[in-house]
Write a structure and sequence with these properties.
The protein is an alpha/beta fold. The protein has helices at 12-23, 31-41, 51-59, 92-102, 105-119, 131-135, 149-162, 169-185, 207-231; strands at 2-5, 26-29, 63-66, 77-80, 83-84, 124-128, 141-146, 198-201. The structure holds 2'-deoxycytidine-5'-monophosphate.
Amino acid sequence: MIAIDGPGAAGKSTVARLLARRLGTFVFDTGALYRAVTLLALPQGIAPNDAAALTVIANDLDITMAPPTVDDGRQVNVQLGDEDVTWALRTPEIDAAVSEVSAHQGVRAALLPVQRRIADGAAVVMVGRDIGTVVAPDAGTKFYLDASAEERARRRLVDLQRQGVETDFASVLKDLRARDAWDAGRDLSPLRPAEDAIIIHSDGRTAEEIAVEMATIAKERWAALTARGSRA
Ligand code: DC
């Protein structure tokens, strides 16, 4: 299992997809779970600070993630029940509310076993904020992918414009900084690198370069573990 943690829009999902392709594993982007809870809550008028109602939604979450079946730039198919919500999870409304939603203890407790079940023994690249620290502290290889707020805002702006969302650099940067503050400042599982994580900065580097570096490290680790195992 490979864990990739880091702040929003650092390029984790893109790098994870390229890495998984090289290693022949699949990607589990755990942010989709928190986004799905938010997507279900907002139309019901449930506020991002309503911990009790959000916890109920998280406990009942009927989410499926599978390899993409539509060629529209998506990295994964996400369904809630029978409904394809892949792009609905990525709107600015969800971006604005999801960090607060994800800070509630009840929501995190409900989603933890879902993540552990999928991670258990599987050849998977898991992407999130607390994979190396909380969800899978035993992960064989842990990466923490970082980038400056400006670089991340530039990337997020391109993503949003591709989706046809009208916005500008200044407001994307402001939103990202607000999410960073939530993710790193919350009491529960705050965003931080695991002690044994390898920290990689993605400023000025392509996703492909980073995926190649990660694949090399992961393979070396795997070889070392196998060698140690065979001597034991
Ligand atoms: O990676 P993302 O932007 O899709 O994540 C959405 C939110 O979910 C993010 O603001 C923090 C939260 N999150 C989390 O708390 N723990 C995770 N493992 C993944 C995401």
